[in-house]
TrEMBL record:
It comes from Peredibacter starrii. This is Radical SAM protein.
Length: 346
């Protein structure tokens, strides 16, 4: 049995029942967040034909997902898909996305999968009136939602951003925040904008995956522990650890929260990976890198931390095994999740 097969067996009901297609149409973006390594001026993937060429790749993935998968999410991302210059009436990118979405609906229908499309955006568009009408129209026939990205450090946040959160409220499924060293520092200081969003939206705190240039932004294990302590003290609703804490306290089962299984990342140049991009060099990781399958990273995480004999195993969401495998991270001895869960019991 290979590592992937072994993990599927060992993890049992900790294996998520959700499949995820991360479809990065292009990297082009008109802003520059400090933690994001996208090639902001690249135009690869922006033509209609290039977008439609993703459909056979998605079909291949759908035909291979595990039979126990109950839901498939298609994450449509850039770059920034809703940049003003792409919605100016000359280059009508909304029409291109719509064409792609209708093709996706067609291939889902054939497989009796309910299409769920989630578009990830920086929410800076000033063409909100056009975009909201487009979303309303699409939602008459298909489920399309937004993930709004927010970061307390390194991301431009304008008045329009906060206005858009109100305008698009009904379509925003959640806010996404990247847990960098700087974000932890800002949250520890106290961030009013974050506190307001916390009252209004579900917030998912995503593990940061650095690039060689942004390696210094990855939190050390001790900083990650400080972040977990902040979750329990101040933000107990934050996903995924807020939820995990209550599950640990009630000893309820929990799935792993960072997908290794049934996940594909389709890149602008039509390369298909499990998560990593070609720009992530193998020498940056403590394990061997297989761009199609990161189960060896999860395997090493579980072995090194001895998760299978840990008292918190059934409730613990574990950690993103890829981000955890980044070599240049300041590591502590032992598992910080465990130290954190131990402190809850005191
Ligand atoms: C690359 S962005 C593209 C979509 C859109 N432009 C936005 O900012 O939401 C997709 C998501 O990845 C997050 N992200 C960017 N760089 C990241 C990194 N190095 N590690 C983890 N997530 C990252 C962003 O914050 C955003 O939520
Ligand atoms: S808005 Fe999105 S794509 Fe653009 S730089 Fe920021 S994270 Fe990257
Ligand atoms: S607390 Fe640590 S050792 Fe225990 S299951 Fe979670 S990640 Fe593994």
């Amino acid at each position: 049995m290979d590592t992937l097969g072994y993990l599927k067996t060992v993890l049992g009901n900790k294996k998520p029942r959700v499949a995820e297609i991360e479809l990065t149409l292009f990297e082009n973006c008109d802003v520059n967040c400090t933690f994001c390594a996208h090639e902001k001026s690249s135009v690869i993937g922006m033509k209609t034909e290039e977008m439609l060429s993703k459909i056979p790749l998605i079909e291949n993935f759908l035909d291979e997902i595990d039979s126990d998968v109950e839901m498939v999410n298609l994450h449509l991302v850039g770059g920034e898909l809703l940049q003003d210059r792409l919605i100016d009436g000359v280059d009508d990118f909304l029409a291109r996305y719509e064409l792609l979405i209708s093709e996706y609906q067609r291939i889902c229908e054939r497989r009796q999968i309910e299409p769920r499309i989630i578009l990830v955006s920086n929410m800076l568009t000033t063409k909100s009136d056009v975009v909201i009408k487009w979303l309303e129209k699409l939602n008459e026939t298909v489920f399309v939602r937004l993930i709004a990205s927010f970061d307390p450090f390194g991301r431009p946040l304008t008045k329009q951003y906060f206005l858009n959160l109100k305008i698009f409220r009904q379509f925003i499924s959640n806010i996404n925040v990247v847990v960098t060293k700087e974000a932890i520092r800002e949250l520890k200081k106290g961030n009013e904008q974050f506190d307001r969003l916390y009252q209004e939206f579900p917030i998912f705190m995503d593990d940061f995956l650095p690039d060689v240039e942004t390696s210094r932004m990855i939190p050390s294990d001790e900083e990650y522990l400080e972040y977990l302590e902040l979750v329990v003290k101040k933000y107990p609703k934050l996903l995924p650890f807020g939820e995990a804490i209550s599950k640990v306290l009630t000893q309820s089962p929990n799935e792993i929260q960072f997908t290794t299984f049934n996940k594909c990342n389709i890149l602008p140049n039509n390369k298909v990976t499990n998560y990593l991009w070609e720009r992530h060099p193998p020498e940056s990781f403590v394990t061997e890198v297989n761009y199609q399958d990161n189960s060896n990273m999860l395997y090493r995480f579980i072995e090194e931390n001895q998760c299978l004999s840990c008292e918190y195993y059934q409730s613990c969401p574990l950690r993103c095994p890829v981000s955890w495998s980044w070599k240049d991270r300041v590591r502590s001895k032992g598992c910080v999740n465990k130290r954190f869960f131990d402190s809850l019991a005191k």
